[in-house]
Design brief:
Structural class: mainly beta
Number of helices: 2
Oligomer: single chain
Strand content: 35-45%
Order of helices and strands: HEEEHEEEEEEEEEEEEEE
Shape: globular
Number of domains: 2
Largest sheet: 8 strands, mixed
Distance between the termini: 23 Å
Length: about 290
């Protein structure tokens, strides 16, 4: 196995929402005689699990059965469900008729209780070896689960949104910025829909006070159930921002977003459409399960 690890080409999840180096479309060999395969793991609509209605998540078919929703909404039961679900997804996605070896693992961590259930963060890793000396790695970025006896939603279908870094909001005085434009990390936020209906969402980001503010960003998104948005390229400038989010049905929420230095990519500002359809803005510790 050590020889195999030194010969194969590592393909990691470099874009949010993409699970790379999976069994799928064939790519060029890595020069060591072993072929890597890659594809993306996206599903535009919620897919109920084979257990019936009430579970919304992309569910690759395969030999492993997906777990039943927990009958009792305890913290431990929710975490174990998400861990098993992630491992099952990875195993089934890697499985193929010519597979010779599969290894799949799931990791999960409790986030918080809400709405009669629990938010859980989960991710999965794995690999598979196939006939003809083909190898595939699974690398899935963390997904946000809501787990309850009557409903499970897995929001992990991220879509990147970004624009030219030279247009990102920044100060002419470089000392007021946390990074040089186009040279380093800039602030981003995420949008997740854990509701079972699609939502149109508008996000406005303003810099400064109500009496003297500058609009930094205005965006509109159509987010399907289980879907998510990663909005890149928001700002380089230190300071306090006001983030306002509104849905097409008139639900509104806002929050202050304070940036004193480079933003923490493991705890991004996150807009949630909750399982009951309302809005929340908070920081979600996605990096805690990597």
């Amino acid at each position: 196995m050590d020889t195999l690890l030194t010969r194969r080409r590592y393909l990691q999840a470099g874009a949010v929402g993409a699970a790379l180096s999976l069994a799928g479309c064939r790519s060029a060999t890595d020069g060591g005689g072993r072929t890597s395969r890659s594809t993306t793991d996206r599903s535009p609509t919620p897919v109920p699990t084979p257990d019936g209605t009430g579970t919304y998540a992309p569910t690759p078919t395969g030999p492993k059965s997906y777990p039943d929703r927990p009958a009792e909404p305890t913290r431990e039961a929710a975490v174990e469900f998400a861990r098993t679900f992630e491992r099952t997804r990875a195993y089934n996605r890697l499985h193929a008729d010519n597979v010779e070896e599969i290894s799949a693992q799931g990791t999960a961590r409790h986030d918080r209780p809400a709405h009669g259930g629990h938010y859980v963060l989960a991710t999965s890793t794995g690999y598979a070896n196939y006939a003809d000396d083909v190898h595939a790695d699974w690398g899935q970025l963390p997904a946000l689960y809501f787990v309850s006896p009557g409903l499970v939603v897995r929001a992990g279908d991220y879509r990147d949104r970004y624009f030219d870094c030279s247009d990102v909001f920044a100060s002419e005085d470089s000392a007021e910025n946390f990074a040089t434009p186009c040279d380093g990390r800039w602030a981003s936020y995420r949008v997740h829909n854990l509701h079972t209906e699609a939502h149109e969402i508008s996000v406005t980001v303003e810099y400064g006070t109500d009496s003297d503010s500058t609009t930094v960003l205005e965006r509109e998104y159509a987010v399907e159930p289980t879907g998510g948005i990663q909005q890149e390229s928001v700002t380089y400038r230190r300071g306090t921002y006001r983030v306002r989010v509104e849905t097409a049905d008139g639900s509104v929420t806002d929050t202050d977003w304070r940036l004193g230095g480079p933003p923490d990519p493991d705890r991004p500002l996150t807009v949630l459409v909750t399982p009951v359809g309302d809005l929340r803005i908070r920081r979600v510790p996605f990096g805690s399960v990597r």
